[in-house]
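Q: Sequence in, structure out?
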Amino acid sequence: MTATRKTSGVPSTTLHAPNDSDGPVAHHQGSEAVDHSSVGHSEAPLENARYNFTILTFDGLTFWLGLSYFSPTTILPLFVSHLSSSNVVAGAVPAVIALSWALPQLLGARAMSGITSRKRYIIVTALLGRIPLIVMIGIIWAFANTHPQLTLIAFFVCLALFRATSGMNTPVYYDLVGATIHPRQRSRFIGLNQFLGGGIGALALVGGRSLLDSFPFPIGFVLCFGLGTVIITTAIIWMSVVREPPIVKPDGPSQPNVLIQARNVWSRDRTFRRYLIARCLVALTGLASAFFAVQATRELGATDGDVAIYSAILLASQTISTLGWGAIANRLRLMNVMLAGTVLAGSASLLAFMAPSSTIIMLVFALAGASMGAIVVSDGALPLSFAEDSKQDRSLYVAVANTAVSPINLIAPLLGGALADAGGYGTTYVIASLLAVLAAVATVTASTKRPGALSRTLS
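A: Exactly. Output:
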């Protein structure tokens, strides 16, 4: 996988441009008029669906293996801590990753109107993204010990450029998924990728820590980042052999500016707008998750070793549950998978509020991991379904969804920290639980007040 899969988000966490020349038509039963001049939707049957499913799975597996050597929760903050004693600087790592990945996504959606091959665009942008990684590794090797501030600045700049190229090709990557994998198989594909990626990522972290323990600073990080760069670059080989259907170009007038298109999607597609509001509320429930382990160590007597166990439970729960959510999404429907993730997130916060001991926190992390797995699966497939139901540009819907939610993901833990400082962890957990109830109501509303076609694919 040569683009960042959401993740990130992931990681998270994965569309294209206009092909109907008939002009605006009615959206669906009971919805407002939406311009259906959709770019890039391929009309060809999915003749190579099984082949592409396999190839893109190997692509994702290779990508996740390499990206694990740049873990934003362990390896990257540890590297930064060698260059600066500031916790704020270490905490800037996930913020830089989130913003630099989210902001360029509308540019990626805009690119769909001018490209003739999705996979060629993905490969080119992926190769461009490897350049700042190589520069970063060279600077770390040459200057980390002698010029730590210069190295720190270069690290953040290069990391941001790498993630920006990933953000630019994420909408196009998901459009490729939409064009090559049958809608009924997408949830299973996303779940399988997350399951395999989580498992291989855990193994990679073991290897990365071995490198860091075996070599002095900064050589261990140079080797770790170098190995990760080589592996994610080899993922391009898998992308190059995807059998991509042709992109159908529109015969009508050129599309407006991508920002205008994004605004039109928000203002005209009421169903998608309700989904985005619900999804942003779901993201706000994450304001509590960053403090489960902190509360356990400070108030419930958990040790550092216990925190390592919590991390393992979280990873295992998310990894295993994504496979399960992907397999049963066709039965539960995607909006109900998102609803289940919301309920689990609220349950985790409520249980943390009532937890009498650090042992109960293990169950809190299990619930939180299962919630994350459900959201990952629904995030990957829902924007594609909304776009296809309204006969709109898949890449644009993916970009709009990721751009809307990413700032909330950034703000939520900061808000949670402010609440914890003001009223304690219990205040944070209670508010997170109440937000989960509100998000669940919004999700149910979004899934019931939708056109008939969506009721078959999303409910």
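The chain has 17 helices and two strands.
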